[in-house]
Each structure stands twice: as C-alpha cells, then as structure tokens.
Amino acid sequence: MTSDVQQKTDILSMTPDEMKAFVVSMGEPGYRAGQLFTWLHKGASFGEMTNLPKAFREKIEAHTDWRLPQIEEKYISAEDGTVKYLLSLKDGECVECVFMKYHHGSTLCVSSQAGCRMGCRFCASTLNGQVRNLTASEILGQVITVGRDTGERVDGIVMMGIGEPLDNYDNVVRFLRLVSDPAGLNIGLRHISLSTCGIVPKIHDLAEEGLPVTLSVSLHAADDETRSALMPINKKYPISVLLGACRQYFVKTGRRVSFEYTLIAGKNDTPAQADALAAVLKKEMRCPCHVNLIPLNEVAETGLERPGRQRAEAFRKQLEARGINATIRRKLGGDIDASCGQLRLRRKQAAEDKM
Ligand code: SAH
C-alpha cells in the first residue's frame, strides 16, 4: 500500500484495522484512527478534521499520500440529469464515471482499471490496449469525489465503467469492503453490482468472499463461435464453463445472477439467437436469472452497428416467451454519450496527436 511514486502510505486504501495499526506506528493513540477513517471517507481535507489535534493531523498528512481523483471534464444531461465525469488520477491517467438518478435512488458507475486488456470487439475501453490497475483508494475516490460534487448521497454502485474488475481482483474486493464499511460511506453491498466478462476462477473466488454483491455477467452471445468472435476471453472460458461458475455463484451466495447482452446488428440479434440464449440459460443455469439487453452504443472505431428498437423489442419478447426475464436497458444520458470509455479514448488520442 506504499505508492511507488512518492513512497508514502496510501491511507485511503486502508481498512479500519490497518489504519489503527498505522496510527499506533506513528506513536499516536489508536482510537483516533476511527475519526480519521470517517473524515477521509467523507473526502475531508486534513484542515477540515477539526476534532483531531493539529499535531496529529500534520504528522499523518506528512506520511501519507492522499489525493482524490480530480474532475477534468463534466457533462450534465439535459434529458435526465445524468452526470458524466472524466477524472484524473495522480499519475495523469484518466478514468470515467457516471452518476445516474432513478426513482429508487442514485447509482454511480465506477471504473476499476485505466484501460482494459480483455479486447472485447465492441468496447471503447479496450481500444488503446494499455492498462493500469486502480488502487482501492482510486476506486473509492471516484465515489467520494462525485458524492462531494453532486452534494447527493450515492445509494448504489455498478462496477461497469472502464476495466475488468476481476482482472484487478484484490483491489476491487478491498474497495467493496471499504465502501460498505459502516464507519465510511456505508453503501450496502446488496446495492452494488459487479460486472465481468467472465474470468471464471475469480467468479469462484468472489463467491467465497462473503460479499453479497450482484454478479452481472457480460454474455453477449449464446454459442461459443459467436461469443469468441466478440470476446476473446471466451476462448479460455467457454459458455458452459462460465455458466457453471454463475450457477455456483448463485448456489453459494443465494444472489440472482444477471446477464448483460449487448445487441449488435447482424451479429447476435436474430430471433434464433434469442431462442438459443433462452435454451442455454435453462440448460446451464437452472436457477433464477435476468437478462439485461443493451442496444450497442456505437463506437466509430469498431464499425459495429446498433439494431433498431423493434429488433431489440422482438429479441426481448422472444426471451420472455421462452420463460427468461429480460429488460431493455433504459438509455440514460443519451445526449451526453454517457457510455464509458469514449472520453478517455478521445483524451488519449488528443495527447498522442500533440506528440
Ligand atoms: N469488464 C466488465 C465491465 C464492462 S462495461 C464486463 O465486461 O462486464 C459494462 C457492460 O457494457 C459490459 O456488459 C460490456 O460488455 C458492455 N459494453 C461495452 N461496450 C459497449 C458498447 N459499446 N455498447 C454496449 N455495451 C457495451
């Protein structure tokens, strides 16, 4: 947890117990760690921590590396109030997050890596190839920064931003424990969804963590040939193996698994493919599940196209007729292009053009 850049302690990544041990190691009373943890998770500066002695604050500040992600760009949807952020991290890497309001509360979509190495054909986040894992504090920092900027409580989180959460497993699990800590932001794990392209061994590990998050699995195809063409990870963990892990996740946690299915014109959107999807889910899952249909957000570089509304609706109906619950994801922030990965990509390309 010591950063390579400054050799200072990444205090915001610490659990309450670790923070207590750190405070004691600084020769200070351990009970102060509880107040410190709560202040830090509110995004307070050391100057604002008025119920802690000044000398204590100065000592801790001198030994720690503490910087919240900074807002570089911000777009507010005139249609529905969705806010999209481009945030910079301390090494200049940028990530995106999106704040959405639903009638039942607010949800923040956070990023887990800067870039992605999974190579899904339709996705903007992976186009640059480059990737760095975010620390737990950098993922948590997105929640803190946006909470402060909007002045609103973040009620739920979806890990559906840039990156593959299970490719950054330890930091993501640490983040889940921190963000749900009652002394911190106290966001209920049941209000958190983790989306994965399907790194099977890590799905098994996650089922053992005792964290009741909702697992969302990006399926996007019902047969291995189609899925491997869209998602290279399928060559390593084919559909039957992946769905076996999903079933195991449900058996172990009792949490219903949800599946994302991005509809791409001419690739995976025929009625026959809807039938095949229903059949494979029935055969391999044999437990409650839900399918979220996402009409493709077109990314110019991929050349892939979004099917029409009627085609998406026909696909949904076909699934329902086969007994599979399915919804077409409502598009929030349509006017600000709120899907993830594109802002970061544009910024990277602009930086490269200057070189
Ligand atoms: N790495 C995680 C999180 C990715 S983003 C995962 O693979 O699940 C969340 C969802 O958006 C995933 O289902 C992803 O496949 C999907 N997605 C990515 N690019 C998209 C695009 N251009 N249009 C529609 N959905 C997309």
Tags for this entry?
single chain; 355 residues; alpha/beta; DNA polymerase, domain 1; TIM Barrel; 2 domains; 10-stranded mixed β-sheet; two-stranded antiparallel sheet; 12 helices; 12 strands; binds S-adenosyl-L-homocysteine
What is shown here, in short?
With 355 residues, this protein is an alpha/beta fold.
Annotate the secondary structure layout.
Blueprint: H1 16-25, H2 32-42, H3 54-63, E1 70-76, E2 83-88, E3 94-102, E4 105-109, E5 113-115, E6 131-133, H4 136-150, E7 156-159, H5 169-179, E8 192-196, H6 200-207, E9 214-218, H7 224-230, H8 233-236, H9 239-253, E10 257-263, H10 271-284, E11 289-295, H11 309-321, E12 326-328, H12 342-354
Parallel strand pairs: 4-7, 7-8, 8-9, 9-10, 10-11, 11-12
Antiparallel strand pairs: 1-2, 2-3, 3-4, 5-6
Helix pairs in contact: 1-2, 4-5, 6-9, 10-11
CATH architecture of the largest domain: Alpha-Beta Barrel
CATH superfamily of the largest domain: Aldolase class I
Write down the domain tally.
2
Kindly state the mean pLDDT as a whole number?
Answer: 92
Compressed to H and E, one letter per element, the order equals: HHHEEEEEEHEHEHEHHHEHEHEH
Number of helices: 12
Bound molecules: S-adenosyl-L-homocysteine
Helix/strand class: alpha/beta
CATH topology of the largest domain: TIM Barrel
Beta strand count: 12
Strand content range: 15-25%
Computed Rg: 21 Å
* Spatial shape: globular
Describe this structure as you would to a colleague.
- With 355 residues, the protein is an alpha/beta fold.
- It folds into two domains: 3-63, DNA polymerase, domain 1 (Orthogonal Bundle); 70-354, TIM Barrel (Alpha-Beta Barrel), CATH 3.20.20.
- It has helices spanning 16-25, 32-42, 54-63, 136-150, 169-179, 200-207, 224-230, 233-236, 239-253, 271-284, 309-321, 342-354, and strands at residues 70-76, 83-88, 94-102, 105-109, 113-115, 131-133, 156-159, 192-196, 214-218, 257-263, 289-295, 326-328.
- The chain has a ten-stranded mixed β-sheet, with helices on both faces. A two-stranded antiparallel sheet has the order 5-6.
- Strand 1 and strand 2 form a beta hairpin.
- Helix 4 (136-150) crosses helix 5 (169-179), helix 6 packs parallel to helix 9 (239-253) and helix 10 runs parallel beside helix 11 (309-321).
- The longest helix is centred in the middle third of the chain and has 15 residues, at 136-150.
- The chain starts with 15 loop residues before the first helix and ends with a helix.
- Bound molecules: S-adenosyl-L-homocysteine.
- Residues 120, 122-123, 160, 164, 195-197, 218, 260, 262, 294, 296-297, 299, 339 line the site of S-adenosyl-L-homocysteine.
